[in-house]
Amino acid sequence: MHGIIDPMPETASVIWYTGADGAVRRRNPSWEQFTGQSHADYHGWGWLDAIHPDDRNRVAQAWRDAVADGTLDRLRYRLRRHDGQWRDVTAHGSPLLEDGRPPEWVGICVDITHSLQAERALKASEERLRFLDRLGQAARPLTDANRVMATTARLLGEYLGATRCAYADVEADSNRFTIRSDWSVPGVPSSAGVYSLDLFGPQATSNLRRGQHLVVRDVDRELGDEGGGRMFNAIGIKAIICAGLAKDGRLVAMMAVHQSQPRNWTRAELALVEEVVDRCWAHIERVRDSAMLREQDRRKDEFLATLAHELRNPLAPMRYAVAMMRMAKDGSVLPQAQEVIDRQVSHMARLIDDLLDLSRINRGLIQLQREPVRLATLLQRAVETARPGIEAARHRLELQLPPDSLMVDADPARVVQVIGNLLNNAAKYTPDGGHIRLAAWAAGRNAVLEVADNGIGIPPDQQGKLFQMFTQLHHTANRAQGGLGIGLSLVKTLVEMHGGSVRVDSAGLDEGSRFTVELPLAKAAVVPATPPAAATPSAPGPTRVLVVEDNRDGLETLLALLDVLGYEVAGAADGREGLAVARHFRPQAVLLDLGLPVMDGFEVARAMREDPALKDTYIVALTGWGADSDRQRTAQAGFDAHLTKPVALDTLEEMLARATQPAAGN
Fold first, then answer.
1. Residue 283 domain flag
2. Beta strand 396-400 with 435-443: parallel, antiparallel or unpaired?
3. Cβ atoms 575, 615 nearer than 8 A
4. If 243 and its partner were Cys, which of 31, 273, 362, 388 is the partner (CB 3.0–4.6 Å)?
5. SMART domains, per this entry (predicted)?
6. What is the pLDDT of residues 54-76, one digit of tens each?
7. CA distance linking residue 418 with residue 486, whole number of Å
8. Does 244 share its domain with 318?
9. Is 551's pLDDT higher than 70?
10. How confident is the model at residue 539 (pLDDT cuts 50, 70, 90)?
11. Are residues 199 and 77 in the same domain?
12. What is the mean pLDDT of residues 421-433?
């Protein structure tokens, strides 16, 4: 009946011959070669035995119809090859008359298995691409990460005909994962929640953490109770694909497809789930990045508005104080006006210092000067810095000092700043007449500091935002007394730079707050039994002071102030003039600005150090530049000290007093 023309499987063809009634009467070696049947097997209608049982009746009927019509065209069926594989073929044939004998049919069968497979693959690929395009179109306009997860899970679950489909974020510990949103067929409960990868069993967990996929076709046959079977059966799942997504060596997300009955997942289905989790992650990252940029832009606008507000606030009472001084004839308002101006200038200086600290930290310019230091001493210093605000609100401060033997390995100034910020925060957000407690103790290898108050408290949903930069919590609007929302961010950063931690606890509104800081204890160190006494400034201080400042108001007011204090003063408005005045005036101390016209402060200082008559003059940088790098530059240029504007009067006098100490020793 059939004869092989081309032995290549993907193009195999068979020429066949048969009688008009469809029976085979003569031997056909090609049929034997293709099907493996013997002549006895395919003789007569035995050739039907090589056709798939589901196709035999249809083929026999098609043959009878073909005999009646006189043609056989594109009859398709499955034919068993000699190796047992079923091959898709198409048959074509027509009758052939010879010398008036009954017609004999001749035709050809073509093996179309590979072309059908290619056609199916192309169709599946087109369907897959259409699905991925539909998924992209659905996710692209979404601006909420949870909606991206929900939409992706629904579309994938519906496409695969699954029972449930879920997307999960994996936390940085590569163990806990959160299903925020999933999709399931009606009647199947949601799987949303927080889980541990350990539930999958040790082998699956290890594979998932490496970014490999978990594919289970039959939970009961393939998994034991300890291998994850107990968990899957508990939620009614008998087959699962869990495709993990690893980024930079860490598992970051998973897409899970559940089936309530065993299912023989195909490679194409696994590949699709793998691609969907990758695309979903990309969409979610885009949405989250966009949301973060919007949030940063909103917070930036709020910060700029707050900064303008905070800078205007102290300027207003200062201007009022100046107006009062001008109008008063008898000088009676002078002390009050002075206090107002001094207090508001100090407030502005603290705002600027906080901003500069934040900038330096972000640029990695702050270097901790760590040393073993008594924690009790740091607490006492911090209390002194915060005392004005505490006393102004009539708070009761409870201080529980640790023993003198409790030492921390810390930068003293920065720890005082941390504790002071926490105390100021407690004073600000506690109604007048409240209670604030500052305590410290040792716990293992750490020292624990605690600042607690009975103030307005913090709602649980806002506690996670508390240490973010420029954050002002909404519920504090009626109680806030100013600030840029960076104090607690500085606290967190400075504590973590020490290798410590900070946390907040509050039962909610009007329940008070408790901030807990942990810092590493210092190793055993020999320290003085009592803190060293502060150095006493020498009196009476320098007699001749030169001020070089290009801001005319700043120059004239500082000269007037020094004159009132009893110093002999001279001034200059640019660097070259300052150097000339110094050579004539021979000052014992120079208060020298850095950003001067003609010659800057660095050039002036170097020139003075090269002049034999001025080389021993005490030179103080008095500038608005206060970063560590600025202090290093002034030291390298020959400055003896560095003060940042605005400087407190007692600090200025103490600095000028040092200028006379070398002379006093001669």
1. yes
2. parallel
3. no
4. 273
5. GAF, HATPase_c, HisKA, PAC, REC
6. 999 999 888 888 877 777 888 99
7. 12
8. no
9. yes
10. very low
11. no
12. 90
